[in-house]
Design goal:
This protein has helices at residues 2-51, 92-121, 126-134, 136-152, 158-179, 187-214, 220-250, 261-280. It has 281 residues and is an all-alpha fold.
């Protein structure tokens, strides 16, 4: 009897380990595809084929890469021998770019792993998953912006953009939490998403959306970028409102009755104060 129980326990352990390995492998593949295809679509398709298709090709034979310090090449190279597809200088800023990139890749992997577990279990809340997909572009845009800020040592919009990034991450964490059907939808969770993205809408409008898109003073690429950032924010406001409406309908009450008066007051205060704060950055 003891041997029988032991065999069953070992079999259950092995089966669980196999499933866990499949989860990690699938999450890895999804995350890898995401971090590979996004830059390709961004630079290889949109930039190279649509936005700036007429830029001249680099002459590999005359290019000197004269700004390359060759440190990472060790004793193999000095002076610069010629054209490089990729080269980087050994500076503190390069390390910062590397840190931002590694963190972004790891966050992508963890999100993919978390969502795959939910899908395998059949426990995905559809509208919240839609919100997660909607915020992929804003997060990618933030990483690319920081890459360029650091690479060019251009820090004029650094703190302003950092405000958007930090609050976007908080909002996305709330969305991922609610993507799991086991996690109850509560008013304060909806307000976290609603309030943060309301601030984003106000700030995006003040920054450039109204001027570029509404007033039609922006270039085509600016309009596409601004729409790509504004539409996810709008969805992050409308879907929590829709979920609140469903909650109220199930309880046979008006939507405002779901919230404490203090919650409503603090939400208005949060949106006003953080909009002012972001505008000052």
């Amino acid at each position: 009897m003891q041997h029988y129980v032991e065999r069953k326990l070992v079999g259950a352990h092995d089966a669980g380990a196999a499933v866990n390995l499949k989860e990690k492998a699938f999450a890895f593949v999804v995350a890898a595809i995401s971090v590979v295809i996004l830059p390709y679509l961004h630079i290889g398709v949109f930039y190279k084929l649509i936005w700036v298709p007429d830029k001249p090709k680099v002459d590999k034979f005359s290019c000197t890469c004269s700004c390359f310090d060759t440190v990472f090449r060790g004793q193999y190279e000095w002076p610069v021998s010629g054209y490089k597809h990729v080269y980087f200088n050994s500076t503190a800023v390069t390390l910062q770019i590397w840190v931002f990139t590694v963190v972004a890749v790891l966050m992508t992997y963890e999100a993919a792993k978390y969502l795959f577990r939910l899908f395998r279990r059949g426990g995905v809340r559809r509208w919240m998953f839609v919100l997660f997909l909607a915020c992929v572009y804003p997060h990618y845009y933030s990483w690319w912006s920081y890459f360029n800020y650091l690479n060019e040592e251009f820090y004029q919009h650094w703190y302003h953009h950092m405000f958007f990034t930090v609050t976007e991450i908080i909002s996305t964490c709330a969305v991922l939490h609610l993507t799991d059907v086991r996690h109850k939808i509560e008013t304060w969770k909806l307000l976290v998403i609603f309030n943060i993205n309301s601030v984003h809408i106000v700030q995006s409008g003040l920054d450039q959306f109204v001027k570029h898109v509404i007033m039609m003073e922006g270039f085509a690429f600016q309009n596409v970028r601004d729409l790509g950032l504004m539409v996810p924010d709008l969805l992050h406001v409308l879907i929590p409102v829709y979920e609140a409406y469903k909650m109220a309908d199930r309880q046979w009450m008006a939507v405002p009755m779901l919230f404490y008066k203090e919650e409503i007051f603090l939400s208005f205060l949060f949106i006003i104060m953080f909009s002012i704060f972001a505008n000052l950055l």
